[in-house]
Amino acid sequence: MTHPTHALSRRTLLGIGAGLGALAGTGFLSGCATSSSTRDGASPSPRATGDPDNPLGVPADLPLEAVIFKGGYGDQYAIDAEAIYQQRFPQAEIQHTGGQELGKLLQPRFVSGDVPDVICNAGAGALMLAPLVENGQLMDLTPLLDAPADGGDGKTVRDTLLPGIVEQGSFGGVPYALNYTFTVHGLYYSSSLFEERGWTFPTTWAEMLDLCQEIKDSTDMAPWTYQGKNPGYILTPLVMMAIKAGGREVIEALDNLEPDSWTSEPMLESARAMYQLVERGFIMQGTSGLTHTQAQTYWANGRAVFIPCGSWLESELGDVTPDGFDMVIASPPSLTDDDALPQAAIRGMGNEAFIVPAQAENPYGGMELLRIMLSPTSSQNFTRQTQTLTSLADYDPQSAGTGLTSVRDALTASGDDTFYWRYGTWYSPLQTEAANATSALMTGEIDPDEWSRRCQAAADAVRNDDSIEKYGDQ
């Protein structure tokens, strides 16, 4: 069975490319249950007024509290949107918290019921969404999606978003999260280094191994590094290569927890390919002990040639990146010449999930802040600060570095073959175990066969656990 939402239309992706093309010459912790979905035990209803300036009927004097993950994108973009909110509701007191490890920060508050009005739930320490959904602790964001878009020329918020964004934040067909950014995942490298050395990005795994050997033999750089303490980063290219090898059926198997989802030939072949990096000594020494910022800093300083990451990397590194480094992203190589999807096919999807707790005092204020953030003005401001796209379609980002320009080029090349998966969002225990198994694989503690067995056992455990709600086509 094919999910059409697993692919983005070429028209949409070319539209993203066109918006950026004009710039080319310009330089997990689990949520705990509470007994009720709101403080009085009933979900609040939107106070729609018909006012185009306040379509959600937000009380003018009700305080607003926002907790924003302060990672690679910082949180200034949210502070700027809050300033617009303040202009519209001058009587409202705004409390803003930017931080990391949001699960540790917010889990006790979900237990007590004293929750913020809107949360950017992102980063390695984010709250697990599925338990919050299952326990009725998140608002259905349909009122936001059906509201008039800010600066949307009469369109609803839903109509202004990139394809797949609503679905990626939905559980059982209900939108509980809204991914603010549109993220592309792949391998990063320095285009100026490649030009200097006369290297070409490898399009097959055999070419990758040959280039890695040349790098090892002729330079003092390691071919690869990755964010060792956050092994989900290195799991991503492994899954990407398997999907390109086996086609969208691999996505369906993973998302639907099928009995052979992790032991299929494409998954095994991809694990075997990644394991060759270990066997041949192509991983930078000490990688497994590095945080994501440490690994990325070593990479930017020339200690390694390739690093897997999402398109937040350019923003996250900031001034750490040397002048003239010219980072670019590319999809990982094809495993073979017979892959089901072309080498250029890439993972593109929403990220930085925003949620509105059901127990919030001002949930429609939280949605109104999101409505402001999804305006062209706020999206342009975000991209200017972060070199990253938002999930708003058809806006002009107005500025692009080499990383963002390469994201444009990668999406254009991928076109209708752009894909994503959702098992990690739906089933956090599976994602955690698959990442841990991949960490063991990349340090040589286990081999690819054991890796596949461990991952499959985790998928089977989730599938057979009746206490875990299932969201795929079971």
UniProtKB/TrEMBL annotation:
Transmembrane segments: none annotated. GO terms for cellular component: cell envelope. InterPro entries: Bact_solute-bd_prot1, Chitin_NgcE, SBP, TAT_signal. Residues 34-57 are annotated as: Disordered. It holds the Pfam family SBP_bac_1. Keywords: Signal, Transport. Its main location: other. It comes from the Bacteria. The keyword Transport applies. It is found in: Cell envelope. Coiled coil: none annotated. Belongs to the bacterial solute-binding protein 1 family. PANTHER family: ARABINOSE-BINDING PROTEIN-RELATED, SN-GLYCEROL-3-PHOSPHATE-BINDING PERIPLASMIC PROTEIN UGPB. This is Carbohydrate ABC transporter, N-acetylglucosamine/diacetylchitobiose-binding protein. It comes from Jiangella aurantiaca. The lineage of its organism: Bacteria, Bacillati, Actinomycetota, Actinomycetes, Jiangellales.
